[in-house]
Design a protein that fits this description.
The complex is a heterodimer of chains A (about 210) and B (about 325). With about 210 residues, chain A is an alpha+beta fold. Helix content of chain A is about 30%, strand content about 15%. Chain A is built from seven helices and five strands. A five-stranded mixed β-sheet of chain A has the order 2-1-5-3-4, sandwiched between helices. In chain A, helix 4 (about 145-150) crosses helix 7 (about 195-210) and helix 5 runs parallel beside helix 7. The longest helix of chain A has 14 residues, at about 160-175. Among the domains of chain B are: about 5-50, Uridine Diphospho-n-acetylenolpyruvylglucosamine Reductase, domain 2 (2-Layer Sandwich); about 220-325, 2-Layer Sandwich (Enolase-like, domain 1). In chain B, helix 2 (about 35-40) links the parallel strand 2 and strand 3 (about 45-50). Chain B is built from 13 helices and twelve strands. In chain B, the strands form three sheets. Chain B has a five-stranded antiparallel β-sheet. A four-stranded antiparallel β-sheet of chain B has the order 9-10-11-12, with helices on both faces. A three-stranded parallel β-sheet of chain B has the order 1-3-2, with helices on one face. The chains are: A alpha+beta (about 210), B alpha+beta (about 325). Chains A and B meet through helix 2, strand 4, helix 5 and helix 6 of A and helix 2 and helix 6 of B.
Chain lengths: ~210, ~325
């Protein structure tokens, strides 16, 4: 239930026009066993859709292929790809920044294309080839983009770096960046609060020109 | 996020059947929906994953219409040679939206249903008629710098956020949908609704209908077209004002014009008023300025967004000048 719609607990006067007290309402919800929204009853306003979410979290078996390895996981349907990687698979290389698709820290490659792993459910990726920062190096040999980031000092704190590197690998795969301005534009989905942008551009240029 | 039942649709019929009971949402790219679910603004009881459906192709029909499958990714559409060559306005609009990652996820069908970024729609502690009908509009007397100046009502002044839709409005695209009763077509101008008294209803798509494709009719002169977007930062930001312009110019005269504005309207804003001014007029700055005045003649400013009226005019004049100067 959306707690922002709750009236103060002690205030029984905040009943709805239909005379339903909060306590009474909660009982109704318990009886109905449904997660109805409180706001419409309190304000008399109508809801857009009648929502009756299942009372219990729904779980299912999901097979994910990450860095070439298949994993069978029983997970809550609500698990994002990002959380599946970090929590279910204990691969914390992919970072959670904003969790709303605004910062790019969670960027991974799905079938070679960069995406925000925070804005997609893991269950939507059965059969996909997922590549994370952990899957770029070949043993002790760094991926050229990782090596270029080191060489050009393309980070400071490093938190955005896995996303930056995965995004940069995706950018090279896409092949649309011709100029420095193109690189900047096509990397705009990855925010770096330390401001290492100049060196990130240098690192990407080096790999692009090889 | 509330729990939901996850359903993988194997064919359009199955997806439509799953939707008939209500409370279900289709998920394709998920870039907008997942975010809204995390914020408890969208709370579907069932989530129907349609990514397995065969709607990922872009094809040219015998009559020259370009049929874009609803699941085509924004990036695939933007970089498609056919689109880049024949409809630069669409390619540019798509590439001006979001980030490379999001464009790799977001689909054409989903983009049509993209929801506003009005901060009060996102703030579940604030009244919002779009989110909770009848609760009031916080933006009208609140901080409304990013809100709309065209198509507003006393119930809602939320801006439609899409760039793609502005280009599609100018192109006069046709949206193909499928429902329990079969397929139907919706002209782009009839797809999005003005907020009026019911801002919670944003499109004419029914709850059990599935978008299958977006068709662009042949417009040979759309080779001369352009999308110009003005925003607070150079990239990865929603428009303050934008203009999609398509001009057919012959011997210095405008034979036909297609004009749409973004960032200023409660829906993708095709401006028939501007088109009327331009059709038959000389292709020069004076015509462009007159057209821009016409396009914004019905604009209604709010406390913080009056600047958008002048900004939109200049954006349109700039875009018209660019297209007018194309060989």
């Amino acid at each position: 239930m959306d707690e922002n719609h709750d009236p103060p607990i002690e205030d029984e006067s905040s009943s709805s026009s239909s005379g339903t007290s909060r306590r009474g309402f909660l009982t109704q919800v318990a009886v109905a066993g449904a997660g109805l929204t409180l706001a419409p009853l309190l304000t008399g306003a109508q809801e857009i859709i009648l929502e009756t979410p299942p009372a219990q979290p729904q779980t299912s078996m999901v097979i994910l292929t990450v860095n070439g390895q298949k994993h069978t996981l029983n997970m809550d349907e609500r698990t994002t790809l990002l959380d599946a990687l970090r929590e279910n698979l204990a691969m914390p290389g992919t970072k959670k920044g904003c969790d709303h698709g605004q910062c790019g820290a969670c960027t991974v490659l799905v079938n070679g294309r960069r995406i925000n792993s925070c804005l997609t459910f893991a269950a939507m990726h059965q059969g996909d080839e997922i590549t994370t920062i952990e899957g770029l190096a070949k043993g002790d040999e760094l991926h050229p983009m990782q090596a270029a980031f080191l060489k050009h000092d393309a980070f400071q704190c490093g938190y955005c770096t896995p996303g930056q590197i995965c995004s940069a690998v995706g950018l090279i795969n896409e092949g649309h960046a011709k100029t420095d301005a193109d690189i900047r534009e096509l990397m705009s989905g990855n925010i770096c609060r330390c401001g290492a942008y100049q060196n990130i551009v240098e690192a990407i240029k080096e790999v692009k020109n090889v | 996020m509330e729990s939901f039942k996850f359903i993988r649709a194997n064919d359009p019929r199955g997806a439509i059947t799953s939707m008939t009971g209500g409370g279900a949402k289709i998920i394709a790219g998920g870039t907008n929906l997942v975010d809204l679910m995390k914020l408890n603004i969208e709370r579907p009881a069932q989530l129907i994953d349609i990514n397995g459906l065969k709607m990922q192709t872009i094809e040219t029909l015998p009559n020259g219409t370009i049929k874009i499958g609803a699941l085509v990714k924004n990036s695939d559409l933007a970089y498609h040679p056919l689109i880049m060559k024949n409809f630069p306005v669409l390619s540019e609009a798509l590439l001006s939206g979001a980030s490379a990652q999001l464009r790799n996820m977001a689909t054409v069908g989903g983009n049509l249903l993209q929801r506003t970024r009005c901060p009060y729609f996102y703030d579940t502690a604030a009244p919002c008629n779009k989110r909770v009908p009848g609760s009031g509009c916080s933006a009208i007397d609140g901080y409304n710098r990013n809100n709309a100046v065209l198509g507003t009502s006393k119930y809602c002044i939320a801006t439609h956020p899409s760039d793609m839709c502005v280009a599609m409005a100018a192109l006069g695209a046709v949206i193909h949908v499928q429902g329990p009763a079969g397929p139907r077509e919706i002209p782009f101008a009839d797809f999005h609704l003005l907020p009026a008294q019911t801002p919670q209803y944003e499109t004419t798509l029914k709850h059990d209908e599935l978008i299958t494709s977006v068709d662009i009719p042949p417009i040979p002169y759309a080779i001369r077209s352009h999308y110009l977007k003005v925003r607070d930062r150079a990239s990865y930001e929603f428009a303050l004002a934008s203009a999609a312009v398509i001009l057919d110019i012959n011997g210095g005269r405008i034979k036909d014009a297609r004009i749409a504005l973004g960032g200023v309207g409660t829906k993708p804003w095709r401006s028939k008023l501007a088109e009327k001014v331009l059709t038959g007029a000389a292709a020069n700055e004076q015509s462009y300025r007159t057209a821009a005045e016409a396009a914004l003649s019905e604009a209604k400013p709010y406390k913080h967004n009056a600047f958008k009226i002048e900004l939109a005019k200049r954006t349109l004049v700039h875009a018209l000048t660019t297209v007018g100067g194309m060989s």
